[in-house]
């Protein structure tokens, strides 16, 4: 069995034109559909793994002294962090 060059496979998989059937693409390139789907899934998984390990955007909606809530931070996926401590706000502002 020959060793597969990941970059070459990535270029091959990404070269499939939109709208072209996988069956026709594979026949044209001389690869099996199993090979195509295996590597497409493997490459997509590695992309999603690298995205989850990166930075995520955050947005501080409100910083106020009204009541006790100092800040409300929106995270992706509709998660919200409510901050009630000024030292936490200072630390977050330094980090962000």
TrEMBL record:
It comes from the Bacteria. This is Transposase.
């Amino acid at each position: 069995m020959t060793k597969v060059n990941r970059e070459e496979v990535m270029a091959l998989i990404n070269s499939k034109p939109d709208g072209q059937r996988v069956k026709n693409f594979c026949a044209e390139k001389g690869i099996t559909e199993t090979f195509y789907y295996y590597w497409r899934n493997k490459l997509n998984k590695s992309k999603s793994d690298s995205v989850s390990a990166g930075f995520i955007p955050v947005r501080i909606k409100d910083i106020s002294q009204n009541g006790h809530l100092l800040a409300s931070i929106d995270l992706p996926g509709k998660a919200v962090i409510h901050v009630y401590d000024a030292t936490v706000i200072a630390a977050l502002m330094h980090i962000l």
